[in-house]
Amino acid sequence: MKTALFYKNPKTLLNKGSGFLSDYTHSLNPYTGCSFACSYCYVRQMPVSLFREQPWGTWVDIKQEAATLLRKELQRAKAKGKVTIFMSSATDPYQPIEQKEEVTRSLLKVMAEEPPDFLLVQTRSPLVRRDIDLLQLLQDRVRVSMTVETDLDDIRKHFSPQAPPIQARLKTLQLLAEAGIPTQATIAPVLPSSEAFAHRLRPLVNRVCLDDFYMGDGSGGQRTKKLGIASLYEALGKPEWYEPTAYQLVYERLLRVFDAEEVYVSQKGFAP
Ligand code: SF4
């Protein structure tokens, strides 16, 4: 689907970390909107989406002059104390248009010069590999959290057909690890997966985060319920995977191949 693009000049970039992100001092969104259009995206139920005429997933606002703004805000925030940043909470920082616009890259350049105490880069896009050079400059102050909700690409296509293929995400985790960048595989939300999933992740990461709609959508699963996600599980003939207990199956499978301290559940897995 074609994404409608809009150029915006935001007044602020760093937002106060709150709620699920209260472990962070700030969140940072280089874009508003998201071309990946995941069916289960909790942002669909937030004002940024509800008050927009176009449906979620069909539009992206590109933030102009973002690097200049971030430099000022970061310097101000650092002067006050510790700065920990979650990028991004309401978009993916590696939108397809990022290839051309380089907004996220420009922000990473600023952060490489003015390092925050910690930066978490949350994405599902292989495009993050383009910025390995900048991520390396942040050393242990950064972690790239790559969403891999399942190891089955047919399942991925069912829930988020516009998002990047699973195999490309796994390959990216491998490349990031080889470049010495701290990473984690983030199984969030837990979607139906195979028994081999944990074994596929084992050679790639030393850290896995697991989350589901009930713990991680900020409303005990109510936002997801409003999105009608249950029908997608029924269409698959896998309603049991929509149960609040479904994540435990994946958790147990992970614990057979990872040490317990390598597997994090929900908010703890996203913490700095
Ligand atoms: S990538 Fe993230 S922000 Fe974008 S639609 Fe999917 S869940 Fe929502």
UniProtKB/TrEMBL annotation:
Keywords: Iron, Iron-sulfur, Lyase, Metal-binding. Residues 20-268 form the Radical SAM core domain. InterPro entries: MJ0683-like, rSAM, rSAM_sf. GO terms for molecular function: iron-sulfur cluster binding; lyase activity; metal ion binding. Pfam families: Radical_SAM (PF04055). PANTHER family: SLR0285 PROTEIN. This is DNA photolyase. It comes from Brevibacillus reuszeri.
